Structures are given as structure tokens and as C-alpha cells.
Amino acid sequence: MTTYVWNYLAEYESEREDILEAVDQVFRSGRLVLGDSVQGFEREFAAYLGAGHCVGVDNGTNAVKLALEAVGVTRGDEVITVSNTAAPTVVAIDEIGAVPVFVDVRADDYLMDVGQVEAAITPRTRAIVPVHLYGQCVDMAPLLRIAAKHDLRIVEDCAQAHGARAGGRTAGTFGDAAAFSFYPTKVLGAYGDGGAVVTADAGVEAALRRLRYYGMEKTYYVVRTPGHNSRLDEVQAEILRRKLTRLDGYVKQRREVARRYAEGLAGLCGDGGLELPVVAPGNEHVYYVYVVRHSQRDRIIEALAERHDISLNISYPWPVHTMSGFAHLGVPRGALPVTERLAGQIFSLPMYPSLEPALQDRVIDALHDVIRTL
Ligand SMILES: *Cc1c(COP(=O)(O)O)cnc(C)c1O
């Protein structure tokens, strides 16, 4: 079965010298942990986003976890988020003993339905985690008003939204803190694991620096409140610095792939047909995933595999609240009707910067064949 969901090898071939030079630079620097490259990346990533401070951490899941802790979320606090997300969003909330509370998503762009947030607030609600899923920002203006009115913190999950913008503002600059992942597939990906939290608040920044370093004030080596070991690796930071200079280029390539899909698949859309990504007004999508929707998704996936040897991904086939690992949350099936319906209808088309047009055309042609003969 041909799976070209994601493949970094072509990109590595074109960037190999730069990547190997980054590795060598760190190994020769004499400083393998929290050195110049982590510091440099933090400065440069904050500047790229227009965020005040950046603290590098070991992965995106821990970025969400540390961000929540740094803004004051503790055991027993309720955190409002969505179930149509990558499971780690919820794993991070659960791991610190906080209670994830889900609101449904919108039926057009599959992002948090902000109109449902206020009804989910209780006296124990402490924070909201909007997920800028697939590469597009949640409707932040009304969410910021709700958070201010009820004195709630906002931690943005930006793991899929490096460089995405809404109303001219960059994802990661709306909330009290924002979590990024540099997992290799992400829009800005390392050659291994990595993550970061950005914030405009110097107090939150200081808390994050302690939390990633055992809870220590590094200057005194004293633990005041226990933390973790969640440092961003120096080698990955140097690779990320170099890839950051190419991020706008990667995004441009992703948008070109999206444009070719929209053009090539337009004939399959309309009245019960294929639904392509909807970009909300004022949003600049970075297309981490290109998610389409069709009521006969399973038959399409099956026929693509059988007739065309094409295997596609689904982001995501199981809403988090239906996973057995979250049964303890006690959210019944049927509680999030849009999320649950979507999970049976959405699927993802191959999307990465180095995707060759010929491969993309093969997918487009196969979709025409399969959907025409449903
Ligand atoms: C990838 C991802 C994460 C987790 O990032 P890791 O670096 O894999 O830990 C969290 N949230 C979302 C929405 C993601 O896509």
C-alpha cells in the first residue's frame, strides 16, 4: 500500500548539509544542555511570533502541561477544551490532575464552538485550552471576552498552528500562554522531539523556566515548588533555529498544495458531496493537515485502498471523550454530537511541503474515480 501521508526524506536531502552542520556546531560548542542554541531559538521564535518570551521544552504535550501549571492551574481545576483534537491536549490536562471539560466544535471548520463555552463554566473552571486545529485559529475575540469576564486563563494549543494568523495576530499571542510542538511532522518540525511555551507575562515565563528545570531557581539551585525535567534539547534547538528561517517558505508550499487540492477537487463538491476546508474570514491557514469530509468516508477510504493502492490518515477517527483511557471523565456518547458525527466523516489528504505535484495528482484523480462510482 502506498502511504504518502508524510515523508521527510526528500526535505532532509535538500537540507542535509545545514542539519549536519547544526549538529556539529552543538557538539563542538562544549555545552550540550541549555546552551546558546536553546537561548537563541527562544529569542528568535518569540520574535517570529511577536510573543514576549519563549521557553523551550521537551515536547508539545509537556508544553501544554507546563503552560497550564505556569498560569496557575492545579489539581481539581476544570479546564474547558475540545474532544476533536490530538489526544495529548487532553493527556496534558489530565496529567496534572485537572479535569478536562469538553465543548463541541463547529460543523464548518471543526474548531471549538466558542458559543458553547460560557454554559460549560462552573465555579471550579480555571482555564480554557482552545486548539488551533489543522492549522487555523479558533475564533479568539469572543473567547478572550469570556475569559476576561469570568477571570479565566487561556492556554492556546498551537501544536498545529506555527505561523497561523487571525485578524493580523499570530497564533500564540492571544492567550496567557501558548504551547507549541516541534514533533517532526509539525509545520515547524525538529529531527526528534521538541516543544516551547510562549507568553507575554514575565512571571509566567519565570515559572516556566523553573518548571522545566526540576522546579529550581537556576541561579540558586533551590527548589521552591517541585517541577519536572522538560528541557528542549540543544541539538534540536539549533536545528529549529535554522528551520525557523525557512518556516515562511514551508507554509507557502503548504498553501500551494492546498490551492491545487481546491482546484482539482472542486468538481466533487456541493450538495452531499465532498467538503473541503473552510477558512474563516480573516484567518490565514497554515494547513498542517488538509481535512476533507464526506458522508461515505469509510467506503471512499476502502475503495482508495483497493482500487488505487492509496492509504490515507484520519485526524482523528476517535473523539478523545470516547477513548477508554478517558472513561473516568464520564462523558457519555452523544454528548458532543458534531464532534462524534465528524469523526465518522473526515479524512486527511497528503499534505507536506515537499509533496510532489505528480503524487498529489494521483490522489486527486483517484478521489474523482472513487467518488464518481460510489
Ligand atoms: C502534536 C500535538 C500535541 C503534542 O505534541 P508532542 O510534541 O507530540 O508531545 C499536542 N496538541 C496537538 C493539537 C498536537 O497536534
TrEMBL record:
GO BP of this protein: polysaccharide biosynthetic process
Matching SUPFAM superfamilies: PLP-dependent transferases (SSF53383)
One Pfam family hit: DegT_DnrJ_EryC1
Residue numbers bearing the N6-(pyridoxal phosphate)lysine modification: K186
An example Gene Ontology molecular-function term: pyridoxal phosphate binding
Source taxon at top rank: Bacteria
Keywords carried by this UniProt record: Aminotransferase, Pyridoxal phosphate, Transferase
Listed InterPro entries: DegT/StrS_aminotransferase (IPR000653), PyrdxlP-dep_Trfase (IPR015424), PyrdxlP-dep_Trfase_major (IPR015421), PyrdxlP-dep_Trfase_small (IPR015422)
Active site as annotated: K186
Family indicated by similarity: Belongs to the DegT/DnrJ/EryC1 family.
Protein name, UniProt field: Putative aminotransferase
Lineage: Bacteria, Bacillati, Actinomycetota, Actinomycetes, Micromonosporales
